[in-house]
Amino acid sequence: MKNNLLPVAALLLGTLFLFLGNGLHGLLLPVRGTTEGYSTTLLGLLGTSWATGFVAGCLLAPTLVKRIGHVRAFSGFTSLIAIIALLTGLLVDPVWWVVLRAVTGFSTAGTSMIIESWLNERATNESRGAIFSLYIAITLFGVVGGQMMIPFGDTSAATFFMICGILYCLAMMPTLLSNAQSPQPLKQVKLDLRALYRNSPVSFLGILMVGIANGAFGTLGAVFGRQAGLSDSTVALMMSVTIFAGAAMQFPAGRLSDMTDRRYVLSALAAIGAVAGLLIFLVEPANVTLLLTLIAIYGAMANALYPIAVSHANDFAEPEDFVKVSGGLLLLYGIGTIIGPTIGGPVMTAAGPYGLFMITAASHLVVAAYAIFRSRRRAPIPAAERDAYSAVNPGMMTTPESLQLSPRAAPFSEEHDAQAMAEPSGPSDKAAAGEMGAPPASQAPAAMPDELPAHVSTDAPDDPAAGTTPSNDPNRS
To answer: Is domain 189-407+433-477 classified as CATH 1.20.1250.20?
Structure first.
């Protein structure tokens, strides 16, 4: 294991500094903006702007990385983030902040792609799980560590903005000074959202709604805390509690989803998260302990929904499509995080700070209801035939490249790449290029949302109660 970690030690150290800066800057802006008296709508646009830039970065940044290489691209993107952090301290203006935040989102997508593809190439099947876990632990520690700096300084001064700049500059140093070999160019994946919906309607809609809820809370949670009268230290604690509660919930929720229909687990978690949100909105608890308890429950449920929805989609996908399916869901999540803060700001302006949890509760209720509805339209894949649950946190696993780190994807990706390279040019080139879609009309009929996925036999009806017999199992659909 030591030999596997040494080649990526410098990269992981840079990742720690990068996420320390991300955690600090991401919480500092809404806290400082509230102090400056910026409207909730404008502060919500900070999240919308970041998410828009991030989605654009996922689509466009790989071209730049391919052109100039990983190390120079990583340094360039990180330099941009550092410059933006310093500029937001110099230009304390909401309009400038919104514009600059989009550049941060774009650059963050670029740095994430580089880090994750680099780790993926250096990992072996034997070390992949350990490297993946270490990467998640570092990002988690970085985000929380950055947030917890807030209580130790004055957010109305420029000091924290300068600390962000220092952290981002430190993030560049390990890779610049390292003599480790750079990875191969990124592999782009062309996504097909219509095919993604055909594969799993409940994951498609569920991920979008989870993105709306998480995007609204992630951007406006600190604004809610300040407007609700919480101190800076309590706001930082509140935001960190949701991360820790979500991390603690991953294993029990994942194990439960491996043993039963994942849609039932999705529905139950979403319903509990909705109840927690509604209680916060209706009760408006003045007791800090009660408020933090309800928010911890919300965070535990909300942060467990994404990986279960991804796992459910992969249950119905071909193994070689794992990265494409997960990458498409990640794009949907990004779209949701654009919508969430956009509508969250006006709702909080009209209904007060606790109106934020109207957004989260409504989104989670949609997930809960639709998951139950879909469970009546399509039978689950038997537990024995599913891929094992693997935690994927969208807050940490940020790009399609990161999804290749999953131990489930690794055995298939290399084999599929070799097969794609060996195939002659022609119709199969589409698959080799990483496109996902339904088979041509001349080969097979297009699947409708309530039909079975293309790789499963369509001889049986869609109603699970009608004795479905797709594949070789009477319960699979």
So the answer is: yes
